[in-house]
Design a protein that fits this description.
The protein has 188 residues and is mostly helical. It contains 6 helices and no strands. The chain has one domain (35-187): nmb1532 protein domain like (Four Helix Bundle (Hemerythrin (Met), subunit A), Up-down Bundle). The relative contact order is 0.19.
Length: 188
């Protein structure tokens, strides 16, 4: 049984996949993925979805960071012009939906195909739980910003949540791809 809260396992403290997980991975080298004959099937599709999640998350964090430097009187206009609220809500829905599909469809199939990776999927499931909590906190912060009026403090709070979300989404996706892309390449 994996202790997800151990420093080497938790998404907020790990630098990559733990050695105990890495040693169970399939052998396809990341540099060879795009050359594999099965890459054009599900692997490329999944990687494109993941890039969209990372890019949207990074864009929101970057937009918020820039807004922190503009005068208070211009913040609401900047939020409206950047479509920050709509883009953020889209990211949150996209991430929730993607993780539900993985948790309920892909991961159970992958465990049946590669039982040796069960701990890797326990780790991914733990990540999803942390991501869902972080998404919820970011959504609450966004709702406060949208419903209670824009203030620099609310904007800074949303930035803090968005930056944290971007960090863990990026770490999770990089690690998840090391686990799942070789399965797609092997099993289509």
């Amino acid at each position: 049984m994996l202790n997800y809260n151990a420093t080497e396992n938790h998404i907020s403290t790990r630098d990559g996949l733990p050695i105990s997980i890495r040693s169970t991975l399939l052998e396809e080298a990341k540099s060879d993925w795009s050359k594999h004959p099965a890459y054009a099937k599900n692997a490329r599709f999944f990687m494109n979805i993941h890039r969209q999640l990372i890019n949207k998350s990074q864009d929101i964090a970057n937009t918020l960071e820039k807004m922190l430097d503009i005068p208070d009187s211009d913040i609401q206009l900047a939020i409206n012009q950047s479509k920050l609220i709509a883009n953020s809500r889209h990211l949150f829905q996209f991430a929730h939906g993607h993780h539900q599909i993985e948790d309920h469809n892909y991961f159970p199939q992958f465990i049946r195909l590669q039982p040796s990776l069960e701990q890797a999927f326990e780790l991914m499931d733990g990540d999803h739980n942390v991501i869902e909590t972080t998404l919820h906190n970011a959504e609450q912060s966004l709702n406060s910003l949208a419903q209670n009026g824009t203030t620099r403090d609310r904007l800074a709070e949303f930035y803090k949540h968005s930056k944290g979300l971007n960090k863990i989404i990026t770490r999770h996706i990089r690690d998840e791809e090391e686990v799942i892309i070789p399965i797609f390449l092997r099993h289509g």
